[in-house]
Design brief:
The strands form three sheets. Strands 5-2-1-6-7-8 form a six-stranded parallel β-sheet, with helices on both faces. It has a six-stranded parallel β-sheet with strand order 11-10-9-12-13-14, sandwiched between helices. The longest helix has 18 residues. Helix content is 38%, strand content 16%. The protein has 15 helices and 14 strands. It has two domains: 198 residues, Rossmann fold; 175 residues, Rossmann fold (3-Layer(aba) Sandwich). It is an alpha/beta fold.
């Protein structure tokens, strides 16, 4: 029997496209994805990167979809978000799905759409970046959030937590574990494997052309340069290394944002010309930087419910250093051979770990590490829809 699934999310996300393509190929399943806006598929400024871009990895190819608006992401909040939710409700009702998979519980566009769909009797499933670890809240704010989410979650029949922190969050909000199916965050492994195959054989040449010696250690930062990502802890840590250790370090930063100028200035005080700030790079351009690197640093202090750059770096065989606020730490950093975890506020701890990484430079492995396949979520959604 043919089942119809609707998916609702704010905008195209490059990491979700393989999931949707996989679902679209499932037998006896008709899929349609409803996007609140088209951010990411047309040139538009990202509020955190601070640059105009569009994804070059076709985040809407291979599955049926509909854009509910051509608005900006900011237009999905407040009263404008409520008005767009009414449009989403009408479009999904017209599609007449057997179930609706909703990504996230905010902004207003998503929240209001969920409540309208629930009132209409639709079967709802939730896949959201849920955690209690990414942000610190006051007791009162936490209780208000708990009351709202406990009510909100009662509207769903099934949940797809992204990891251990996500499971613990749902349990705290009163969701029974029998209603959960674990579905880790994943990258498009096929897309990145092509980059691995192309760039890794050129690693020695790329490093030599940049002036990197064999004994040097290349640290990589990849992401938005704004306060939640906590990039300024890196120059704080480097300042506490010895001159001999600093001489062995190169630093490549890929990304942009409001802290870039200060971040770049402070890193160059420590490393001089061995600090390279490449700016924003699209998905197909990342491979050459991962191929050059030895260790990725993701020092986030808030809001990092997973951290997909860790998946990407591991796919290229890099070691990783992540803060204790990075959601994937419990799932991916399972062994000291893979990477290390530090307290997000402790730059001395980070300095000590960087020092150890330099000493272990010759132990760097080129083997692919733990990865989660994007088809897992697709298969889990399909099974729960059929059941």
């Amino acid at each position: 029997m043919l089942r119809k699934l609707a998916i609702l999310l704010t905008h195209p996300v490059q990491y979700f496209a393989p999931v949707f393509r996989e679902l679209a190929q499932q037998p006896n399943l008709q899929l349609k994805v409803f996007f609140g806006c088209n951010h990411g598929v047309i040139p538009r400024e990202d509020p955190n990167f601070g640059v105009v871009f569009q994804w070059d990895c076709q985040p809407t190819a291979g599955f049926e979809h509909e854009f509910l608006s051509h608005n900006y992401l900011e237009d999905l909040k407040g009263l404008r978000g409520i008005r767009l939710a009414a449009k989403a409700f009408t479009a999904i009702n017209r599609y007449q799905p057997d179930a609706v998979l909703i990504f996230a519980y905010s902004p207003t566009f998503i929240t209001a759409s969920t409540l309208l769909l629930c009132l209409a009797g639709h079967k709802l499933m939730l896949r959201a970046d849920t955690t209690d670890e990414a942000l610190s809240r006051s007791y009162i704010k936490d209780k208000i959030r708990q009351l709202f989410l406990s009510f909100y979650y009662r509207q769903f029949t099934h949940f797809f937590p992204i990891g251990t922190d996500s499971i613990n969050h749902y349990l705290r909000m009163g969701v029974d574990k029998s209603r959960m199916t674990l579905a880790h965050y994943a990258i498009d492994t096929e897309f990145f494997q092509k980059q691995v195959d192309f760039w890794l054989p050129q690693r020695e040449t790329l490093r030599a052309n940049a002036g990197i010696r064999e004994q040097d250690h290349v640290l990589i930062y990849c992401g938005k340069m704004f306060p939640p990502k906590n990039p300024l802890i890196i120059p704080d840590a480097l300042e506490n290394l010895s001159p001999v250790e600093k001489e062995k370090i190169w630093f490549f930063a890929v990304g942009d944002g409001e802290l870039r100028e200060e971040f770049e200035r402070r890193i160059k005080v420590q490393l001089g010309e061995r600090a390279i700030f490449a700016g924003f790079k699209n998905q197909s351009e990342l491979g050459q930087y991962y191929a050059i690197g030895d260790t990725l640093i993701l020092p986030s202090k808030s809001g990092e419910t997973w951290g997909l750059v860790v998946n990407e770096a591991l796919h290229f065989g890099l070691r990783v250093i992540v803060s204790n606020k990075v959601g994937c730490a419990k799932e991916l950093i399972t062994d000291i051979k893979i990477g290390r975890i530090f307290s997000s506020s402790n730059f001395l701890e980070l300095a000590n770990i960087i020092s150890q990484e330099i000493l272990q430079n010759n132990l760097k492995s080129k083997e692919l590490k733990l990865l989660f396949n994007s088809s897992n979520l697709a298969k889990n959604v399909y099974v729960n829809l059929i059941v």
